[in-house]
Amino acid sequence: MSRKRPGAHAARVLLPLLLALLAGGCAVSEVTRAPAPTRQVAPAFAEAAALAAPHAGLDSQARQANAERIDRLLAGLDDTVLAREAAALPAGDPLYAFAGRALLDRGLPLPRAFDRGGAWSSATGARPPADPDGYRPPLRLGVLLPLSGSLSAAAAPVRDGLLAGYYGERRRRPQITFHDTAAGGAIAAYDQALAAGADYVLGPLGRDQVDALFRSGRLSVPVLALNAGSVPPPPGSASFALAPEDDGIAAAEYLLARHASRALVLADADDGLRRAAAAFRAHWSARGGRIVAELGVGTEPGDLSAALATAAQSGGGIDAVFLALKPAHAHALAPQLARAGLGGTLRVATSQLAAAHADLTREHALDGIAFPGETGGVHAAAGLPSARGGAARLFAFGHDAWLLTAYLEHLATAADGKVAGATGSLRLDGFGNVVRTPTWSTFRGATVVPLGGAGN
């Protein structure tokens, strides 16, 4: 008699039963893992992301208003949250350009380079490889400036600063040709630069001319404009400006870095200074600061002692003063601030204070007021009249314009790309605008003294 294997009978009984159950639709359950918890995005950042999604398709006026709303939302985030949320954005997200710009305004590092496509590499492809520090100048540089007419006086120190930087460089330099925008306009000057073989164009200087060039749709050679237009630069091009608004934003960040929170604003009627004060007010408030009082100053500052004393005695007090004032007015009001008990308060002014003459500084009235300064060595090395006095800032601007033509690809493609210029540390935002983090200085009598610490 044959011997059966153990369990053979049970298998013959159970196997048909199991097959029948499966055929009847009985499912076999599986062990599933719980979904990973969803990361909580800061509400203000999420709102900004919703606004950024349709931003590129808006018309110019709506786009400007939308950008301001996004900037206000991001300004309300602290450094840690802003950096964390920016780093979490995927490549190509339209909010990254806004978040990155907010980080640059605060002098903070970018988590990664901006998403720019191939516009920058294609514009520089014919040049020799970059040096280790990123230096990669054009082969032929065309410069568009008003060499005649009413704007030629402003263009002269820009030109001199450009040439000082150019001749101060010992490495390979491009051939330079200058083209007068006053003769036939920016587009005609641009065409002349192309006819002369330029592979990069610097300028124009006037805002309307920048708009005309950027709107033309014919930039076969990229441009670094020397002003901010009302339209963004085309891909591969950029703009560099000494905008009054930059002074206001930089002043707010300078004070916030020093933990100030309650500010008094003194503003002249001058258009540029009013724009600086408005930018300070908006940025300061969006970043959580409070403006305790704002006093307008006429053509003559007069006696504001009573108003200053009232502001100083307000609940909570004042821990910062922003002076959007001409040097003479800052000199007249500094003693009044001291009498109101605000002489030792953090005080910061616009770059206009750098032009204060010796007769305003020798009495030490302006001592201790911080202002965006330029690198003094650039001016001293040049020894030109245009490098001194009221023109010094434009001279430094021209010097930095030269640097940007040689380092712009590095700034555009590296997350940590920056260059130390005469007007400050220069970086490039996601919209093609050069961002300056100024070097801060103060007066000690007639001597300009660099200030250390945050913000420098």
Which labels suit this protein?
five-stranded parallel β-sheet; Rossmann fold; 17 helices; 456 residues; four-stranded parallel β-sheet; 42% helix; alpha/beta; 15% strand
Structure description:
- A five-stranded parallel beta sheet has the order 2-1-3-4-5, with helices on both faces. Strands 7-6-8-9 form a four-stranded parallel beta sheet, with helices on one face.
- The chain is globular, with a radius of gyration of 30 Å.
- The longest helix is centred in the last third of the chain and has 22 residues, at 392-413.
- The chain has 456 residues and is an alpha/beta fold.
- Helix 2 runs antiparallel to helix 3, helix 4 (79-88) runs antiparallel to helix 5 and helix 11 (244-257) packs parallel to helix 12 (271-286).
- The protein has helices spanning 8-23, 43-52, 60-75, 79-88, 95-105, 119-123, 152-168, 181-184, 186-195, 207-215, 244-257, 271-286, 305-312, 327-339, 358-361, 376-382, 392-413; strands spanning 140-145, 175-180, 200-202, 223-225, 238-239, 262-268, 290-297, 320-324, 346-349, 371-373, 419-420, 425-428, 434-437, 439-444, 447-450.
- The chain has three domains: 43-105, no CATH class; 135-239 and 378-422, Response regulator (Rossmann fold), CATH 3.40.50.2300; 245-374 and 440-450, Rossmann fold, CATH 3.40.50.2300.
